[in-house]
Amino acid sequence: MTRIVCLGEAMVELSGSAGAWRVGYGGDTLNTAVHLARGGHDVAYMTALGEDAFSANLRLAWEGEGLDCSLVLTHPSRHAGLYAITTDVAGERSFTYWRDTSAARALFELDAVDQAMAIAETADLFCFSLVSLAILPPQGRQDLLRLAGRVRDNGGQVAFDGNYRPRLWETTEAAQRARDKAIAFADIGLPTLEDEVLLSGAGSAEDVARHWRTLGCKDVVVKLGAQGCLLPDGAICPVPQTLQPVDTSGAGDAFNGGYLSARLRGASAHDAALAGHALAGWTVMRPGAIPAVDRLAPYGQPDSSHA
């Protein structure tokens, strides 16, 4: 049985518009975790929530999606974070956050985290992102990278998404240093060209892939948005069709879920990228970061190892 652990911050999500807000949930690594669970994989999510009603509802919703929530720890005084998505006429999104005192930021300060880390380090695949690092204090960042190292020491793989959100970082240089340290622990790299240009002025997708490989991450897929992605062999895998998105929230996370799911089943990087494009395309044509499953959802066949 392939065991996946995803770690990060997940929040209450408001999407829609004034007078018609929809309440859901989201967060980059959570979105990927849900997509993987929907695809039939054995997935645990590691984070911290509070004792508030919103936190309780999040746990119930995630369990309903098939996630193992035994690594969702409880903070005695903090609560779940909140964010709102607004979109323009082209479906491009912007976010407003209320997350400064979220429980997830104190994950590695909780007494129960040592036991949770001991479980997480046995994962076959461990997933985290630059946002996962951004929300943590310096010691928490070190603890997260130490956990990634333990996963690899135990024979597991690590997937890292260089999801850059400038407002979460004290300086650009701090974000660059954290990204580069994380890349060195990663087997599978999932950067986005737009983020890399913003973070460090990368000139091309090839430059991004070269930088990540130089730091030790061999399996690098550079996401190019509507242009597709750059595969590890240097070829471009374009998206199958041009879409007019309703909401681009969670597109990259959906790609990650589709790509990783297919790779875990033995697909080539090219075929896995097509699976990632299909899931991202389905996601952006619906509101919210994690749309409700419908008959067009391209999750494929459940993993036969998952019971």
Describe the structure.
The structure is a single chain. With 307 residues, the chain is an alpha/beta fold. The protein has one domain (3-284): 3-Layer(aba) Sandwich (UDP-N-acetylmuramoyl-L-alanine:D-glutamate ligase). It has ten helices and 14 strands. The chain has helices at 28-38, 53-64, 113-120, 130-134, 138-153, 172-183, 193-200, 205-214, 251-264, 269-284; strands at residues 3-7, 11-15, 22-26, 42-49, 72-74, 82-87, 93-98, 125-129, 157-161, 188-189, 219-220, 222-223, 229-230, 236-237. It has a seven-stranded parallel beta sheet, sandwiched between helices. It has a four-stranded mixed beta sheet with strand order 3-2-6-7. It has a three-stranded antiparallel beta sheet with strand order 12-13-14. The N and C termini lie close together (9 Å). 48% of the residues are buried.
In short:
This protein has 307 residues and is of the alpha/beta class. It has ten helices and 14 strands. The strands form three sheets. Strands 5-4-1-8-9-10-11 form a seven-stranded parallel β-sheet, with helices on both faces.
